[in-house]
Amino acid sequence: MQINLDFTGQVAICTGGASGMGLLSGQKLAASGAKVVLVDINEEGVMKAAEEIRQHGYEATGVVADIRFYDQVEAAAKLAIEKYGQIDILINACGGASARIWKCHDAFRDRDPEIISWGIDVNLKGALYFIRACIGNMLDHNHGVIINFGSVSGEEGSAGCIDYAAAKSAMHGVTKSIASLGAKHNVRSCCIMPGPVLTRAAMANMKTAIGRAAEPWEIVDFILYLCDDTHGGFITGSSHLLDGGRLLAQF
Ligand SMILES: NC(=O)c1ccc[n+]([C@@H]2O[C@H](COP(=O)([O-])OP(=O)(O)OC[C@H]3O[C@@H](n4cnc5c(N)ncnc54)[C@H](O)[C@@H]3O)[C@@H](O)[C@H]2O)c1
Predict the structure, then answer these.
(1) Can you spell out the DSSP letters for 137-204?
(2) Which atom, in ligand 1's list, is nearest to the CA of 153?
(3) How far is the CA of 16 from the centre of ligand 1 (A)?
(4) 89, 25 Cβ separation under 8 angstroms
C-alpha cells in the first residue's frame, strides 16, 4: 500500500523545532506541502533550520521563543496566523529531561526545586500554553491536529527524573481533554510516547525488547500519519507507545 501524505495549504507549528523530532517533523511537513513555523529557544539553530527548509524550495519561518512564557508563545502563534493565515497542526515536541539538561544527579530529596519547576514548565506547561494560543484559531476554522509528546519514562516511571516522568504522563490527560474539546470542531489530538530515539547517540544504551533504539524518522513518520486527515482522521484522544517493546514484562 502506498501512503501519500499531503498537507498542501496547511500551516504547522513545530515546537522544539531547532533539533531532533521537532525539526524532522517540520522538515517532513514542509516537504509534504505545509507551511511550517519552527519555534525554539535556540535562535541560531531555529533560524538555520528554517533557512535550510527554504533552500529546498519549501515554506518555513523560524521563531525564537521560550515556551515557559505565555507572551512569547502567543507571539509565535500570532506570527503564524498573520503570515500564513491559520494554524492547522501543532507538534508539541519541545521537551527534555531536566536531570540530563541541567546535569543534575542529586537524589530527588536533595534536588533544587528550580530544576523540578523547569522540568514541569518545559515538558508540560509550555505545551498547554501552545495549545491555548492555537486552539481558538483551530476551532474557528474547523480544522486542527495537536500532537503531544509523552515518553516511555512517563509509563515506567523515572526515579532519576520525577518531574519529567510526571509531565510526560500528564500528556495523556491533556490529549484526551483537547480531543474532547475539539471533537465537534474537527480538531483532533493524539499523544505519542517514544522509547529511546537516536536524536542523541546515548539513547542507544537504553534497552528495548527488539534490541535497538528508534531512528527519529520511525517516530516522525507515524506523527505525519496521525496528522494526515485521510489516514489519521478517525484517530483522536489516543496515546501511542512507540518503544520497541521496552515496556514488555519479559525481554
Ligand atoms: N529522544 C528520545 O529518546 C525521547 C524519548 C522519549 C520522549 N522524547 C520526547 O520527544 C520530544 C523530542 O525529543 P528530541 O530528542 O527530538 O528533542 P531535542 O532535545 O533534540 O530537542 C528539544 C528542543 O527543545 C528546545 N527547547 C528546550 N527548552 C526550550 C524552551 N524553554 N523553549 C523553547 N524551546 C526549548 C531545545 O532547544 C531543542 O531544540 C521531547 O519532548 C522529548 O522529551 C524523546
Answers:
(1) HHHHTT-EEEEEE--HHHHH--TT-HHHHHHHHHHHHHHHHHHHHHGGGTEEEEEEEE--BTTSGGGG
(2) 6
(3) 6
(4) no
In tens, the pLDDT along 79-108 reads: 999 999 999 999 999 999 988 888 888 899
- Distance of CA 149 from the midpoint of ligand 1 (Å): 9
pLDDT band with cut points at 50, 70 and 90 for residue 251: confident
Reply yes or no on domain 11-242 having CATH 3.40.50.720. yes
Measured from the CB, is residue 66 less than 6 Å from ligand 1? Answer: yes
Residue of 13, 14, 21, 123 with the most ligand 1 atoms within 8 Å of its CB, for mutation = 21
Separation of first and last alpha carbons in the chain: 32
What's the DSSP call for residue 102? T
Q: Which helix (H) or strand (E) holds 61?
A: strand 60-64
Domain ranges of the chain: 11-242
Is 70 exceeded by the pLDDT of residue 73? Answer: yes
Render the burial of 71-82: b for 16+ CB within 10 Å, e for the rest: ebbbbbbebbbe
Q: What is the pLDDT of residues 193-238, one digit of tens each?
A: 999 999 999 999 999 999 999 999 999 999 999 999 999 999 999 9
Would the CB of 116 count as within 6 Å of ligand 1?
no
Q: How far is the CA of 20 from the centre of ligand 1 (A)?
A: 7
Q: Which residue has the cell 530544576?
A: 115
What cell does 193 get? 510516547
